[in-house]
Amino acid sequence: MEKVVSLCKRRGFVFPGSEIYGGLANSWDYGPLGVELKNNIKNLWWKRFVQSRDDMVGLDASLLMNPKVWEASGHLKEFSDPLVECKQCHTRFRVNEAWSDEVWWELAKKLEKAKVSDKEKLVQETLKECPNCGAKNKFAAPQRFNLMFKTLIGSAEGKASEAYFRPETAQGIFVNFKNVLDTSRKKIPFGIAQIGKAFRNEITPGNFIFRTREFEQMEIEYFIYEKDWKRSFDMWLLEMKDWIKEIGIDLKKIHEYEHPERDLSHYSKRTVDFEYDFPFGRKELYGLAYRTDFDLKNHEKASGQNLKYRDPETNEEFWPHVIEPSLGVDRTVLAILLDAYDDSVEGRVVLRLKPKLAPYKAAVFPLLANKPELTKAAREIYDELRKDFSVTWDDRGNIGKRYFSQDEIGTPFCITVDFDSLEKKDVTVRDRDTAKQERIEIKKLKEYLRGKLD
Ligand code: ATP
Fold first, then answer.
1. Which residue owns the Cα nearest ligand 1 atom 9?
2. What domains sit in the chain, N to C, each tagged with a CATH number?
3. Which parts of the chain sit beneath pLDDT 50?
């Protein structure tokens, strides 16, 4: 993990947020290479799940929504984590994370029945010692801690009203269900997809970009007939696995975790997490949830608007049920980087990214920097390639150093223009993974690259 974090900083994938001011804890900024990688992931996802399918449309909703949305969705009441604080060192812990889900559920059951005055003692008896400072029996009574970020809309003096930054992109989809239905004329089963930021005031952010307070999600709400939910859920399990394969993550490191019933979110009847073997443990990468008709039903009740779907054959009106594949962009970036990082070859680091995800598809070099005719020929190739691909230029140091530098950021091909190129109109293309070199005609370069990007 440290090696990947250090590579990210050194080469411009991810920087600590607000660094010149000493940073802002657990905030991260994507640098020139990080933003390319992230955009490639998002574009691939969009192409695969929206543009390539007849049963899907896209959406881009606001981050700030009417607060009534969060009342109806249950987030104001339910979207909280169990929090305990050690009275000695004042560290706050999420019980399910610092101990385990089992410990939390046992405790929660007892707390429900306990008198307020007994709660502190109960927590101390169960959790005993502070994992941070070791203090015994110093925990304060637990609190539920709502994870939504509150903000004020309008002028702070006087009439400002409270609002929340969305903690998931999903609700933007539900509140637009009718608009999308009326304008796109889709028939169920169909889905609405969205990529965008979500905000959660996490109690225990950390592990680099794994858990942050501001992150990006790629979510689909897939609307179905209730009777089809099992089949649709199984189909989405396969779709998610195929996606994971497509982005080059080793499936041996992926584990499907079926949530036990008591552990399900307030809206879900079945949830399966795709967990990944991160260096800090096996943790959730993605989630797939059957949300029933919970959201549309509640938004209809709260808004007074008809959010039902009319079946074109039977004319029957009902709330469609929903299967939700939910994917974190930042966790995808992290898993991809961890999986791609390879320092097993003596003396060099290779980022074995799938070519279609690599920030640069190719780097173009003149063999020698001080020969204008080489630079001119290489520049022409570079300018031509950049019309169709993301490519980079390097003429510093020797070829070996340039290869090393490109390997480290995952550039799959290095193209060198030498004296032979001027006469024979071909170049040397060196492959990142095999380190093999071959001569390719300049006029066939684009075709060559395109063939390698699928
Ligand atoms: P966790 O149990 O790790 O807190 P969650 O179950 O609350 O995650 P979901 O509400 O299912 O997460 O969110 C869907 C996806 O959004 C997750 O699978 C993950 O990829 C991503 N995600 C959720 N919270 C964060 C966060 N704080 N930082 C980065 N990504 C996140």
1. 287
2. 2-75+151-340 (3.30.930.10), 81-146 (no CATH), 350-453 (3.40.50.800)
3. none
For the purposes of burial, counting CB atoms within 10 Å of the CB of 161, is it exposed (0-12), middle (13-18) or buried (19 or more)?
exposed
Please choose, from the candidates 38, 335, 62, 313, the residue with its C-alpha nearest in 3D space to the C-alpha of residue 172.
62
pLDDT at 100: 82
Return the sign of the alpha-carbon dihedral for residues 360, 361, 366, 368. positive
**Cα 379 from Cα 101, distance rounded (Å):** 58
Who contacts 423 (Cβ-Cβ below 8 Å, separation ≥6)? none
Tell the residue nearest (CA) to atom 16 of ligand 1. 328
Q: How far apart are CA 323 and CA 262, in angstroms?
A: 19
The single-letter code of the amino acid at 437 is: Q
Residue owning the nearest CA to atom 27 of ligand 1: 211
Q: Contacts by 26-33 with C-beta closer than 8 Å and gap 24+? A: 26/202, 26/205, 26/206, 26/211, 26/212, 26/213, 27/212, 27/213, 27/214, 28/208, 28/209, 28/212, 32/359, 33/359, 33/409
Cα of 271 from ligand 1 centre, angstroms: 13
Residue nearest to ligand 1 atom 26, measured at CA: 211
Grouping H, G, I as helix, E, B as strand and the rest as coil, residue 260 is: coil
Q: Does residue 326's CB lie within 6 angstroms of at least one atom of ligand 1?
A: yes
Atom of ligand 1 nearest to the CA of 205: 27
Task: Classify burial at 318, counting beta carbons within 10 Å of its beta carbon; exposed 0-12, middle 13-18, buried 19 or more.
Answer: middle
Rounded distance from Cα 387 to ligand 1 centre (Å)? 37
Residue whose tokens read 């000695």: 88
Confirm or reject: Cβ of 199 under 6 Å from ligand 1.
no
Asked if 363 and 411 touch (Cβ cutoff 8 Å), the reply is yes
**According to the model, what pLDDT value does residue 158 have?**
61
